[in-house]
Task: inverse folding
């Protein structure tokens, strides 16, 4: 078990630029989640995949945000035309659901910290 | 919808003293309950969870939490803390029977253990 891996760990960019983050879940995990954590707050749910299907999106995820999980393995989160308010830690988590009501805990990566200049 | 309240943003305590981190939740449906710990510049690690059964759950490093349905609480306790317990602790809930586990987190409690 190599854990959930996120890349890059830190990203500094100018306002208006596009950024893309990658998440590699634990290999056998079929569920993958993205959360956003701003300073002094708990993580907030952004979106969720079951295999390659994106099944839920938060209202926090504006049309500048897009997430994919093309082959049901790794996932990417892209932010277009970044704004100051996008500065946050972006966390990825994965879990294994053996049935529709599966309740296996989520395992988190170390996150990507995004800073917008 | 669910919400989680962690009233204490910071709890300072001396090493080997007991500690309690409070968590209250609100939900119109049954929930699962979790405590996660976050060390600086790292992701979250699951500390313990309540899914069903005994309302008292324990972790391998001495923490325990008790689910109190009538008070909608899931307070985290440790009888004797160590310096290494200094971290941010997040309480979270997820709705039962939703088909996935969207977690709703509280704002966190920073535990500061000093010698």
Result:
């Amino acid at each position: 078990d190599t854990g959930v891996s996120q890349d890059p760990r830190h990203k500094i960019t100018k306002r208006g630029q596009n950024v893309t983050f990658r998440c590699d879940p634990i290999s056998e995990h079929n569920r993958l989640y993205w959360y956003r954590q701003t300073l002094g707050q708990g993580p907030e749910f952004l979106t969720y995949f079951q295999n390659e299907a994106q099944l839920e999106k938060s209202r926090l995820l504006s049309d500048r945000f897009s997430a994919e999980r093309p082959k049901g393995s790794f996932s990417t989160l892209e932010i277009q035309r970044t704004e100051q308010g996008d500065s946050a830690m972006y966390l990825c988590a994965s879990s294994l659901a053996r049935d529709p009501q599966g309740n296996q805990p989520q395992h988190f990566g170390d996150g990507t910290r995004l800073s917008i200049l | 919808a669910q919400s989680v309240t962690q009233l204490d943003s910071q709890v300072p305590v001396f090493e080997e003293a007991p500690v309690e981190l409070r968590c209250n939740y609100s939900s119109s449906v049954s929930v699962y309950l979790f405590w996660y710990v976050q060390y600086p510049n790292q992701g979250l690690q699951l500390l313990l969870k309540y899914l069903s059964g005994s309302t008292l759950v324990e972790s391998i490093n001495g923490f325990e939490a008790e689910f109190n349905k009538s008070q909608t609480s899931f307070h985290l306790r440790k009888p004797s803390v160590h310096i290494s317990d200094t971290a941010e602790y997040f309480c979270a809930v997820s709705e039962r029977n939703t088909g996935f586990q969207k977690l709703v987190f509280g704002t966190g409690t920073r535990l500061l253990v000093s010698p």
Summary: Chain B has no helices and twelve strands. Chain B touches chain A through 28 residues (CB under 8 Å). The mean pLDDT of chain B is 92.
